[in-house]
Each structure stands twice: as structure tokens, then as C-alpha cells.
Predict the structure.
Amino acid sequence: MRHTLRLPIALAYLGCLAGPANAGEAQPLPTGTLVRVTAPRVSKGRIEGTLLSASENQIVIAFPDSEPRTIARRDLTRLEWSRGYHRNALPGAIVGGLVGGVFLGYASLGLCESDSCSVSLPAVGVGVVLGALPGAGIGALIRTRDWHEADPARVQFSIAPVRGKGVQAKLTLRF
């Protein structure tokens, strides 16, 4: 009897942890969003700018130092949009800890006067902690953009009437 109740309880618990599945939902990408586009026919590198408008055949991207550029949707191989910035405290702590641990481990080996010396694990531990603290601080000062990729084939354009406002255009990304 005990074993027959464990499976449904475990499945219900796992179902609660998993949360709702949102695979079929669409997320709108409003105009004014910072986008990064890869279009080999248009440019050798990635193109980064602000999304001005989009249709089923093309998108228009504004650049801070030049005129807006129209890119055909068939030329897109990759489309990304920025969710903002994030800081790098954890990677900085990892790099700083590794450097500090190696440095103090090597220093403990070099300061040993005995014939049979080995790396001191307490020195390595102290080096990891002492290196991770400034590493986390330096990493927190470094801000990088958080880019999210969308499959250009799943990008759709739609126009819908809005009560009292006229017509609304929307660029939709399907996952």
C-alpha cells in the first residue's frame, strides 16, 4: 500500500516543481527594442540597432550614427534582442579564486625549506577565498548585455485593430 501511494505523490510533486509549460505562447517584440541581426547577404558581421518597424517581408533597424536600414526577412539567419544588462560577479569570483588558489599554493611550495615539500591545501583554500572576494568585486563592475536568440523563421508580423486607438502592428516571436 505504501509503494502505490509514493508514485502519484512523487509525480504530483514534480509537476508542481516544473511549473506551467509556455512553449506555444508568443512574446511580442515591441518597436524600440535593441536587436542584433546576422544577415550575411547584407553585412559580414552582426548588425546591432533599434527595431523601428517590421513586416512579414522586412525589418527596419535604426543605428545611432547612420540612417535606418531595411533588411529583408529572407536574408536573416539570426535574430537576437537585448533584455538589458547583467553583472558578472560569479564569473569574477571563480576566476579570482582560481588565480588566488594557484598563487598561494605555488608560494607555499616555494617557501618550503624541507626536501619533501608539497602544496599546502590550507594555503590554497586561503588563496581561493582571498582571490574570490576581489574577483567578485571586479566582476560586478563589468556589465554586459543579455542577448536572447529567436529563430527568424518563427518571427511573425501581425496587424490588429485596437478599440479607440486605430490599428496596432506587432512583431511576435514563437518558441
